[in-house]
Amino acid sequence: MADLQRFDSVSPPPGAWVPMRRIARRVAAPVEDFLHTEAGGGVLLLAAAAVALVWANSPWGDSYDHLWHTPIAIGFGDWRMTQSLHFWINDGLMTFFFMVAGLEIKRELVEGELSDLRRAALPAAAAIGGMLAPAGIYLLFNGGAPTRDGWGVPMATDIAFAIGVLALLGPRVPSALRILLLAVAIIDDLGAIVVIAVFYSSGLDVTGLAVVGGGFAFLIAIQRLGVRPGGAYLIPMTVMWAGLHMTGVHPTIAGVLVGLATPVRPWLTKDQFTDIAKRAIEDFHATERSGADPIAPLKRLIAAGREAVSPVSRLASGYHPWVAYLIMPLFALANAGVRIGGIDFGIDHTAAVATGIVLGLAIGKPLGVLAMTWLLIKLGLGKLPRGVSWSGVCVLGFTAGIGFTMAIFIAELAFAGAPHLPVAKLSILVATALAAVAGLAVGRFALPRRVTDPVAAELSPADAEASTEY
């Protein structure tokens, strides 16, 4: 609707009643503005978590549990697969979350901050420190206990929440700090994906591996045939998902495989697109005189516009709204509903789990990020980006401690069927709140208010938006 509003300056759509359309635009405008803000996804995620918590601890708490355990079957012919609604959200829909993560990782590795070793060194070191320190703190309290498998929980960073917190700080945050956080969070996601695949998967099934290999081979084959990325990619992803489910590896990794296999280069160059677009527009005008079908040149124009953008960017842009505003909030709604009154704090190692997760995320993350960044600079292997101070690195460290989505996801794997899962989830929520408040507080008092970005000020508007230089 936002794009169509631009035509209103010419005339309203045929058949539209202008007063009613103006009212609809006034109602829709704030919603569209919210959905286009960086903080929008994080706010919706927070709202979904709050609803889950209130619902689970209300007199209707039983309905919360019953809903997510509702069995849902899919199948064809004589084949049926019946799983709970909770399973289809965590193991099914979250595959698209991991696919978007894979697309972002691929884009950064090929043409973004991580494509150059010199620029990648600092965020890589910060991310590694931000993963090792929380895991070490958790193991400090749980190393000799049966709950030690939860060490991966405090390693994760929630990009949506973290970027949302930076957005709330407004002009105090230079673009270089935001870019640095994105790079750190993407490397963090890559580390979490490796941890899930290697440490939180059961024994491998050879038949399942064969199915995964077949699905991946089919994906490569359709690429070689010239099939462009889009809906067709869902077929091999589904095959790989089924194979991974059979092997014992978490099936959401199928989304990562598809994301990493998606081409980065567009089919058409800007000059080729311009040439095709000009001819399509000329042919469209010619149809008025010849009486030919005007749809054909418009289809060429739409197809050219699609192929002038890299498949990685196009798919990430297309799926991101669904992931940010539907899948992630639905995941939060299904997983954040911890019955606080039902947590048995008398269970062995409950305090150790809570302490390890809270300290790991709220303290371990900033300590790890700061320590590894300082060490890299001390060794002369990197330097702080232009416009980023040590106060900014502190803000980055605290916001990296916002674990939420990925942390809850790993907790579901680490404590599946264990009585420690509720306290682990509650600890993640507490740690996320502490990290967000700390990041906002440090940013509010330590970062100076900026009228203009010192990095972006040296660039043209287009360059400032697309800049990959810190």
Which terms summarize this structure?
470 residues, mainly alpha, two-stranded antiparallel sheet, globular, disordered C terminus
Would you kindly provide a written description of the structure presented here, covering whatever features stand out?
67% of the residues lie in helices and 3% in strands. It contains 18 helices and two strands. It has a two-stranded antiparallel ribbon with strand order 1-2. It is globular, with a radius of gyration of 24 Å. The protein starts with 17 loop residues before the first helix and ends with a helix. Mean pLDDT is 83; it is low at 452-470.
List the topology elements.
Layout: H1 18-35, H2 38-56, H3 61-68, E1 71-76, E2 79-84, H4 85-111, H5 117-142, H6 159-168, H7 175-199, H8 206-224, H9 234-247, H10 253-261, H11 270-290, H12 295-307, H13 311-335, H14 350-378, H15 390-400, H16 404-414, H17 421-446, H18 461-466
Helix pairs in contact: 2-6, 2-13, 4-7, 4-10, 4-13, 5-7, 5-14, 6-7, 6-17, 7-15, 8-9, 8-10, 9-10, 11-12, 14-15, 14-17, 15-17, 16-17
